[in-house]
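Throughout our pipeline, every protein is held as a single compact record rather than as scattered files. Such a record has a labelled line for the sequence and another for the backbone structure tokens. This encoding replaces a full spatial description with a residue-level series of whole-number codes. For reference, a complete record is included directly beneath this paragraph.
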Amino acid sequence: MIRKLLIAAAALCLLGAKAPPSVDYRLGISAQGDAPPLAEVEIRFQGDADGETVLQLPDSFGHGKDLWRYISDIQVRGADVTAPDAAHRVLRHRPNARLTVRYRVQTAYPEGDPPGAEQNPYRGPILRPTWFALLGDMAFATPEGRDRQAARFRWGRLPKGWRAVSDLEHGALGRPMTVADVAESISVGGPAMEIVEIPSVPRLRIVRPPGTDHFPAALADEITKAVAAQRAFWNDPNQPYLVAMIPLTPKPGGGRSAGGTGRGDGFTLYATPGGRADELGWIIAHEHIHTWIPALVGHMPPGDREPEAYWLSEGFTDFFAIRAMVRGGLMSLDDAVIRLDEILTAYDRSPARTAPVARIVADFWKDGEVQMLPYRRGLLLALKWDEEIRRKTGGKADLDDVILRMRDHYRQFAPGQGPDVVTGLVSAAWVVAQIDLRPDIARYATGGAVVPLPETLFDKCLDAMVTVSPGFDSGFDHEASFAGKVVKGVRRRGPAWNSGLRDGMRLESWSFTPGDMTREVELTVRQARRNARPRTIRYWPYGDNDVESRKIQITPDLTREQLAACGRKLGGL
């Protein structure tokens, strides 16, 4: 009896305990005349109970390193400060003392708008004389160990006539905010900042600096339709979302560049001039799915191990983005099949196709092919499992039911306490269709084996054909040759040799894509001797060994009614 009373008393104490105070952030902008402005950051929080709190300064994000270089004038009230290294400050204070930290953030782009060659400008904070765009990872310091603690945000002083918007304002819209959300945020502003709100899609905001022609007028409509279709699928109509459009300077030599960064409840879209609405709309369609995948279906592996599960968080996101766009009428059946086939072709041609997950973790930010591998691998696994679930259940369920089951199960737990995304997937697939995905995950997602596809998909309305053709062979060492602009490594009796290419020829120009069997290699060369005239060599890069290639296409001779049914099935209807 005494033991029960003690337990009850302890429970009452816990119920009466106050939650720790929030970590409060304030962001202002200080104009500097014609020079880029400075961001003014203030953080108020309660120090740790042991009298020592570690403050983590912005350090790295993507390929941006040493981001603390853009932080200056750090002032702390309520504590003594030491710096064990450039990325940290140790605050020593009275136990549980209230602390105030202030500092300034300067731009990483003093020379102008971010260059289009970067695609995703991760060098550091963007502060321009007439606008700013700050990723939380690059602007906000965080008290160590507080990721799950509640956070609040408000604007500080802005230059006269400036408007500003941030997804951190979503806390005032009823979305609980944490310190982790502050780091994963986007804040933008400037004079005459254009902020578009769509009455038919509540809490969707689209913002861009004024006077840019980087984003076509039709893009807002594309974004609106994609967001509406995805919210309908998840039955989550009021989730706030912010799209921030950031202009990039044109790429050297022309060409377009577009990319972006997901912010959980927002997205930063970067683009050079000339982008098409459908191209940019696809980027948003992918990123908006990240509102739910993985955030609301399971937690990712911690820290540097996060890329282990990118096949799910990115590959499944691509799959459900295509499905939602087909279902919402934003993508035709033909266009969806073309995109699926492009992904399959890129996967099959990739030199990194069989890389195990350990290499993805090690090289994700170092090798472009490795970086794209989990997107492609995960989408093909989603396509494979979607078909297997449909067949196993006689058409009563598909991967939609699995991902929604993951969401419903994960929401039963306290934040951060539910299963990881892979465990949640395995469990949901077994509950929905009694399919054990663990062997596939070990073989394909972890081990790197080539992902197989069924010969037919969606009740035989799509074919996944395997064809045999000559393998790609440039016939010479094209990497070394292009690097030095001198032909090297021509293989005797190979396709380049038979067309007249020889070692030592000087390369004037070339039209060449490694792995592309759909067009001829075209080289303009000149003999090494003096006064030699240039000549053009063309040939098909066919090798001596045959290789298998796969293609996804609509099954021939379907009736109009069958094609319509196929579109509904691909859209998950």
Confidence is low (pLDDT under 50) at residues 1-17. Residues 474-540 form one domain. Residues 368-392 form the longest helix (25 residues).
